Amino acid sequence: MLDIYEQLIQGLLDKGFGSVDNWLTHEELVGLRKSLLTHQENDHFHAAGIGNKDNLLVLKKIRNDQIYWLNRTKANHWEQLFLEKIDAYVDYLNRTCFTGIQSCEFQYAIYDKGSYYKKHVDRFKNDDKRQFTIVFYLSEAWKQGDGGELRLYTEDTFTEIQPIPGRMVFFRSDIEHEVMMANAQRLSLSGWMKSM
Ligand code: OGA
Ligand code: MN
């Protein structure tokens, strides 16, 4: 994993984000996809970012995916394994980069055909704890035309990351980014590393 960690950190230092395709083993990818689909069957998902009925319409214009927050105490085998690997990476970051990460939170997301998440930053104005964002793509397949690319805005330009199954992206939570409209169902597991 050390090579992977270093690749991600170098990317972050050079351009604000890093991406690798080998963080998850194929087994882990399949296990997490199955876990997501089981949560969906059990009706665990709900519309993302909806506070109350009044702002429902406005929020739908910004983001219309479905999410489910991963619960550490109820995590199944694959989720447990996933969280342990994340914890090891957090330890590495804190030891080698003095990042001061205190906790992590993860959510599964389902973007059905036609879903998107407009340009935003993950660090809230009234709460700046979110330092780094991590996203894992869990779809069965992705091909050109399926959409749902992650567009990261850095300096005067942007980079698009294709949500290929097994791909992982790591970026600073204050970078502007956007999820382009999905033309096919798009599954992911995304999370935030938080400081105090
Ligand atoms: C988010 C987000 C990016 C992605 O959940 O805040 O920006 O590629 N996700 O899913
Ligand atoms: Mn985001």
Outline the structure in words:
The longest helix is centred in the middle third of the chain and has 21 residues. Helix 2 crosses helix 4. With 196 residues, the protein is of the alpha+beta class. Helices cover 30% and strands 30% of the residues. The two termini are 26 Å apart. A 7-stranded antiparallel β-sheet has the order 1-9-6-11-4-3-2. Strands 5-10-7-8 form a 4-stranded antiparallel β-sheet, with no helix packed on it. It has one domain: Jelly Rolls (Sandwich). It binds N-oxalylglycine and manganese (II) ion. N-oxalylglycine binds next to strand 10 and strand 11.
List keywords for this structure.
four-stranded antiparallel beta sheet, Jelly Rolls, 196 residues, alpha+beta, binds N-oxalylglycine, 11 strands
Q: Any idea what the CATH architecture is?
A: Sandwich
CATH topology: Jelly Rolls
Output the strand order for the largest sheet. Answer: 1-9-6-11-4-3-2
User: Helix coverage percent of residues?
Assistant: 25-40%
The coarse silhouette is: globular
Q: Gyration radius, to the nearest Å?
A: 16 Å
Mean pLDDT: 93
Supply the number of helical segments.
4
User: Unreliable segments (pLDDT under 50, ≥5 consecutive)?
Assistant: none
Tally of separate domains: 1
List the topology elements:
Layout lengths: L1 H14 L1 E4 L5 H16 L4 E2 L8 H7 L3 E4 L7 H21 L5 E9 L5 E4 L9 E8 L12 E5 L2 E5 L6 E5 L3 E4 L6 E9 L2
Antiparallel strand pairs: 1-9, 2-3, 3-4, 4-11, 5-10, 6-9, 6-11, 7-8, 7-10
Bound molecules: N-oxalylglycine (OGA) and manganese (II) ion (MN).
The site of N-oxalylglycine has 9 residues, from strand 10 and strand 11.
